[in-house]
Amino acid sequence: MMLLAILTDFVALFFPRACLACQAALVAGEQHLCTTCRAELPYTNYHLLPAAQNPLSRRFWGKLPVVHTLSYLRFLQHGRVQHLLHQLKYQGQQDVGKALGQLYGAELATAGFSPEFDLIVPVPLHRRKLARRGYNQADAFAAGLATALPCPWSATALRRTEHTTSQTRKSRTERWQNVATVFEAAHPEEITGRHILLVDDVLTTGATLEACGAALLAAGARQISIATIATAES
């Protein structure tokens, strides 16, 4: 064990691990995020509120029956969270999603959410976008959550049937029209009768999550809850 620790320190001297949020070198005992970022990230802590008092729930009132609407961090322009999500989505850093999923999953488990969910389902990418990017960022978050809660997850339970244009810079109505009918259950037997935790990287207007949730309910899901890495608060 001592030899392994010495070897680890030697490797870290020449190839220091960096904090996923601020890029500062991690020191012994730190994993993925430095102590400063762990303390200063803008956590929502909405999972500690009664569901009726959670402001994120209002985004789905009258649109989709959601049991829990959960989001780990607040998205702030040019902040640590934006940097984390940029790495995850565009720089191939799937470890960002897995690490944040594990951290948030541990908090949800401590708060008593583990028995709530039967299956975690990430929002899918269309096969063309998946082939171009090489991975689905929501899968990484789902995998991290699944490890910590613990709860099974499926990357194939839901599929996107059409390739749509980017949701960026669209109004809520335009976003909904863009994705309203492009999701379907690929394996309804995985979904029927289950409480599904639907997950994605960012909650903005909620149009994509709403469309996915509707497809899951149509396939026989008993209940739907939502969890994202971050929320762009309106």
TrEMBL record:
<feature type="domain" description="Double zinc ribbon">
    <location>
        <begin position="11"/>
        <end position="43"/>
    </location>
</feature>
<dbReference type="InterPro" id="IPR051910">
    <property type="entry name" value="ComF/GntX_DNA_util-trans"/>
</dbReference>
<keyword id="KW-0732">Signal</keyword>
<dbReference type="InterPro" id="IPR000836">
    <property type="entry name" value="PRTase_dom"/>
</dbReference>
<feature type="domain" description="Phosphoribosyltransferase">
    <location>
        <begin position="141"/>
        <end position="231"/>
    </location>
</feature>
<comment type="similarity">
    <text>Belongs to the ComF/GntX family.</text>
</comment>
<dbReference type="Pfam" id="PF18912">
    <property type="entry name" value="DZR_2"/>
</dbReference>
<dbReference type="InterPro" id="IPR044005">
    <property type="entry name" value="DZR_2"/>
</dbReference>
<feature type="signal peptide">
    <location>
        <begin position="1"/>
        <end position="20"/>
    </location>
</feature>
<dbReference type="InterPro" id="IPR029057">
    <property type="entry name" value="PRTase-like"/>
</dbReference>
<dbReference type="Pfam" id="PF00156">
    <property type="entry name" value="Pribosyltran"/>
</dbReference>
<protein>
    <submittedName>
        <fullName>ComF family protein</fullName>
    </submittedName>
</protein>
